[in-house]
Amino acid sequence: MDYAERNTGGGYAEGVPCWADAMLPDVEGGKRFYGELFGWTFDTGSGPEYGHGTQAYSDGLPVAALAPKADGRMPTVWTVYLASPDAAALAERIKGAGGSMITEVMPVEPFGSMGLAADPEGAVFGLWQAGTHQGFGKQGKPGSYCWTEVYSRDKNLVDPFYEHVFGYGGVDLDLDGEDFRIWSPAGAEPGPDTAVGGRSLLAGLTPAPVSDRYVPARMPAHFLVYFNVADADASAAAVTRLGGRVQAPPADTPYGRIAVFTDNQGATFAVLQG
Length: 274
Description:
The chain is α+β, with helices and mostly antiparallel strands. It has two domains: 8-130, 2,3-Dihydroxybiphenyl 1,2-Dioxygenase, domain 1; 144-273, 2,3-Dihydroxybiphenyl 1,2-Dioxygenase, domain 1 (Roll). 16% of the residues lie in helices and 40% in strands. It contains four helices and 16 strands. The chain has helices at 27-38, 87-96, 155-166, 232-241; strands at residues 17-24, 41-42, 54-58, 61-68, 77-83, 100-108, 112-118, 124-130, 144-152, 169-175, 178-184, 197-201, 222-228, 245-253, 256-262, 268-273. It has an eight-stranded mixed β-sheet, covered by helices on one side. An eight-stranded mixed β-sheet has the order 10-11-12-9-13-16-15-14, with helices on one face. A hairpin with a 2-residue loop joins β3 (54-58) and β4. The longest helix is centred in the N-terminal third of the chain and has 12 residues, at 27-38. It starts with 16 loop residues before the first strand and ends with a strand. Residues 16-130, 144-274 form the VOC domain. GO terms for molecular function: hydrolase activity. Keywords: Hydrolase. Pfam families: Glyoxalase (PF00903).
């Protein structure tokens, strides 16, 4: 399920995932972990005005960022950012549809403008309005972002939220008995060929959902970020060697072989081979 950059001006259509970052207690430790796991290289890092983060590269192209947690109480987590030509207007739609803004939209000059939002169940995602930083320079190939999905408990609350706010077209899929919905950007023919993300249901709501493999019943709603890899089994072995955890071992799906990991600092992510 991959949908290329589509809009005028070379950026991303509204609602298309365009960036991902990890908030970590130890950025240098994160560089070692992800550098070995994905083969990423990193820049020298930003100054205090940009939070002392670092940008990751695969084949010399930007693929993600790692940033230090400003407060130890903040979650250690990967966050996906959804593109918008007008993040301030998008923030108002989010609030009007029952979501909330955790961090109001603010400029990150000259790179763009960003904000952090939560859907009606509390799943957090980012907003990005591009300036000089358009987003992923590489995606859908080994070492880069390839997919995201939100894990929710009430599809009757969450599906209308995303479809109203972003204009997504949705298609329901039955994946081994799991209630799963995929979303395509406004104006695209809905379906796997144009899908940019999906919605799964958290444990306890469907018979043996995929989420039961790694999500405790008490886990709040959240997004899961996927990275493409050449070999999911080799990635699982590397995660273990590097001090992380295999939350869901590699398993075949109609869309490729997937696994869910937690890094050595507590950030959960997934990989897709295929």
